[in-house]
Design a protein that fits this description.
Elements: H1 20-23, H2 36-50, E1 57-61, E2 76-79, H3 85-95, E3 100-106, H4 107-113, H5 118-124, E4 129-134, H6 169-176, E5 180-185, H7 189-201, E6 206-211, H8 221-227, E7 228-230, H9 240-249, E8 253-260, H10 266-273, H11 277-282, H12 285-301
Parallel strand pairs: 1-2, 1-3, 3-4, 4-6, 5-6, 7-8
Antiparallel strand pairs: 5-8
Helix pairs in contact: 2-7, 6-9
The structure holds thiamine diphosphate, iron/sulfur cluster (SF4) and magnesium ion (MG).
């Protein structure tokens, strides 16, 4: 197995202790039984056991039931527009490299309207974690098919059954060059928490497809519970071909870390090529104010 560099999660100062309740934001308003509760619980577990500093964590979302996520965690949060979670998260990470940035969004948000952004965020290897809440449906807008809905599935918007083949998000992320690719299941909460922890600690773009049943509009709960199996020690996450085979050929629904490799991040490469490397790395709001003054001076020259 390859040696993989990790980023330390931003911890609270000694003497301050946070409980799971301290990390919770407003009360979630998802339907009872929605898989998204499992994801929230897993993240809260990770934050608590690592005593993550909420002031150094930012959660950015798109639009969808999944898009409500930032309000349910006590950290910085940004509820963006539909499909644009990755550009917002990328911009935030570049402006505030000191923050741990987590992007969240649904299969519609990330693989339909937002699909154009995904391979580019991946190939930049920007140091963020992307949690794709995949329920194979548009939940918020009441049950239209998404790019991961199976062929033939009938909804009110596809009364004769879906006619397009679904996207395979893991294979796509692997082929686009993602440095961390994993799949979790909202019902395997402890296992999911370990995956999210590993994804947050990864230096580079970490992509986690999380299977999360929409019990109201497409209840895949029983099916996924039967299909899910956890990857074991015999899978080597540094083996790209093995990861691709798993993503495309495996029986059932394997969950775990498919692939993990170390590669310079976007910031590493920008810093390597920049004269003012220190400023880029530590970018704070004071630096941005200085930048605004420089832009103003530049504009004056062309007036
Ligand atoms: C530009 C734009 N187009 C369409 C919509 C309507 N819309 C809101 S959420 C959504 C899809 C939600 O599905 P998904 O991303 O899978 O999230 P889920 O609700 O399943 O978590 C759509 C089409 C919108 N809000 N903005
Ligand atoms: S509509 Fe589906 S995805 Fe949305 S909260 Fe309800 S169960 Fe969850
Ligand atoms: Mg969805």
């Amino acid at each position: 197995m390859s040696m993989v560099k990790t980023s330390a999660l931003p911890r609270l100062q000694d003497g301050v202790a946070m409980t799971p309740a301290d990390y919770k934001g407003i009360k979630p308003i998802w339907c009872p039984g929605c898989g998204d509760y499992g994801i929230l619980n897993a993240l809260i577990q990770v934050l608590t056991r690592n005593q993550v500093d909420p002031a150094r964590l930012a959660i950015v979302s798109g639009i969808g039931c999944s898009g409500r996520f930032p309000a349910f965690v006590k950290s910085y949060g940004f509820h963006g527009v539909h499909g644009r979670v990755l550009p917002v998260a990328t911009g935030l990470k570049l402006a505030r490299p000191d923050l741990t940035v987590v992007a969240v969004g649904g299969d519609g948000d990330g693989l339909a309207i937002g699909m154009g952004h995904l391979p580019h965020a991946i190939r930049r290897n920007v140091d963020i974690t992307y949690l794709l809440f995949d329920n194979h449906i548009y939940g918020l807008t009441k049950g239209q098919p998404s790019p991961t809905t199976e062929v033939g599935h009938k909804t009110h918007a596809s009364p004769y059954g879906v006619s397009e083949y679904p996207i395979n998000p893991l294979a796509m992320a692997l082929v686009a060059g993602a440095t961390f690719v994993a799949r979790g299941f909202s019902s395997h909460t402890r296992h999911l928490a370990d995956l999210i922890e590993a994804a947050l600690a990864h230096r580079g773009f970490s992509f986690v497809q999380i299977m999360t049943p929409c019990v109201t509009f497409y209840d895949t709960y029983k099916q996924w519970k039967q299909q899910a199996w956890e990857l074991g020690e015999d899978h080597d996450p540094s083996d790209f071909q093995a990861a691709l085979r798993l993503a495309t050929e495996a029986e059932g629904m394997p969950i775990g870390i498919f692939y993990r490799v170390e590669r310079p991040t976007l910031m590493d490469r920008l810093v390597a090529g920049a004269k003012d490397a220190a400023r880029l790395q530590s970018g704070t709001r004071y630096d941005r104010e200085a930048d605004a003054r420089q832009i103003d001076a530049l504009l004056q020259r062309y007036r």
